[in-house]
Structures are given as C-alpha cells and as structure tokens.
C-alpha cells in the first residue's frame, strides 16, 4: 500500500508542475437491471490558485448489448462562474456509442459521442459536436494499477471543422472491487481560439456496485 501511495504521489507531483487548472471528478454507478447501468457524476473545476470556475452534475444510462458494444445517454446540468462571481447555468445532453476489447493486459477502447453546448444565456445558440475518443489502458494486476492514455477530437458540426483536441495520461488505482482513485494530466488544445492551450491536473474517484 505504501508503494501505491508513493507512485500516486509522484505522479500527482509530476502532473502538477505542468497544470494550470485543477479538476475533481467523481462517479457513482450501479446496475439497475441486467446489462443496464445508471451513473451519477458530480464534478468541480478550479482555475489557477484554486479559484472556483465550474461545477455540475451529470446523470446517465448505459446499456451493454455485447462484450464489445455499449450505447448510452446522459444529461449534464451545472454552473459557470464569471469574473463578477455570478453563476451562469448551462445544460448539455449526450449520446454515446462505445466499443473495445481486451488483449492480455491491454484494453483499447473507442467512444463516439454526440453532444451539444447550451448555457441557457440570452442570444446563445447551441452547438452540436461529434467527439471521437481513442483510449489505451494497461492493467498492472499485481499492483492494482491501471495507467492509460487517450486522445479525443471535437468536431463542430455547425462550423464543419475540428475545434478542439484533448490528450490525457493518467493512473488509476483499484482499492477493491467497488472503489477506484486516480490522477491524470490533461492537455486541451483549442484549434480556433486565441487561448490555444489549457493544462489540467485531475483527481478522480469512482464507486460502483
């Protein structure tokens, strides 16, 4: 256990040297019927100096058609905080198609997501996106560790162009069959914006029944 804590601490310290924002993610999931999973995912996002930037709650349902294919849908509702400490609400729906397989200790995955942006503000128009995410996970069974890397691209369907890409590397630790904790570094690249790049340190916790 001490070795695991050391590995996570070193990983956290390494990622923190590159990060600008800090995100805290949680997920609680359970199977409510055969092959049908329900999840609730609260998340809090901070800017530099741990200044609160955004918080939301996402709920979802996911159905497993086979060991290689899943479909899911969900909704996210939350608030952005602007410079005047005002809370601006937003809502977002999503539809997912997932596939993947296991080969030895490797687990490659692919997710296609259709989603929209809508902050409910006046004169704001929702933007529809297709998001393509490719992930590779590796299981170190003796240590209950799961390092992974992923790459995701945001395709703006209205503008007919890619507007954002995301690279992420992280490490999950499986405490037992119900609990996991993890840390990750995320690099968001905005392809058509002056802010260009955002570096993010993330901490995560997952509970499943």
Keywords for this entry:
eleven-stranded mixed beta barrel; 7% helix; mainly beta; 209 residues; single chain; Porin
The total strand number stands at: 11
Question: What CATH first level would be assigned?
Answer: Mainly Beta
Distance N terminus to C terminus? 23 Å
The CATH topology corresponds to Porin
Report the radius of gyration as a whole number of Å: 18 Å
What structural class should be given to the helix and strand makeup?
mainly beta
Oligomerization state? single chain
Work out the helicity level: under 10%
The CATH architecture would be Beta Barrel
How would you describe this structure to a colleague?
- By secondary structure, the protein is mainly beta.
- It has one domain: Beta Barrel (Porin).
- It contains one helix and eleven strands, in the order αβββββββββββ.
- The protein has an eleven-stranded mixed β-barrel with strand order 1-2-3-4-5-6-7-8-9-10-11.
């Amino acid at each position: 256990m001490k070795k695991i804590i050391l590995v996570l601490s070193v990983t956290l310290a390494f990622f923190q040297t590159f990060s600008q924002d800090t995100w805290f993610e949680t997920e609680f999931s359970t199977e409510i019927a055969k092959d049908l999973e329900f999840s609730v995912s609260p998340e809090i996002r901070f800017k530099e100096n741990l200044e609160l930037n955004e918080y939301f709650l996402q709920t979802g349902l996911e159905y497993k058609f086979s060991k290689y294919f899943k479909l899911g849908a969900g909704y996210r509702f939350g608030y952005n905080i602007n410079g005047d400490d005002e809370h601006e609400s937003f809502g977002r729906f999503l539809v997912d198609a997932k596939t993947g397989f296991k080969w030895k200790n490797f687990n490659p995955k692919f997710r296609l997501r259709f989603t929209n942006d809508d902050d409910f503000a006046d004169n704001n128009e929702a933007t529809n996106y297709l998001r393509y995410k490719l992930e590779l996970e590796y299981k170190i069974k003796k240590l209950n560790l799961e390092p992974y890397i992923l790459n995701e691209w945001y395709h703006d369907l209205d503008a007919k162009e890619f507007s954002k890409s995301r690279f992420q590397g992280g490490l999950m630790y499986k405490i037992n069959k119900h609990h996991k904790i993890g840390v990750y570094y995320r690099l968001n690249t905005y392809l058509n914006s002056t802010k260009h790049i955002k570096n993010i340190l993330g901490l995560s916790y997952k509970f499943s029944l």
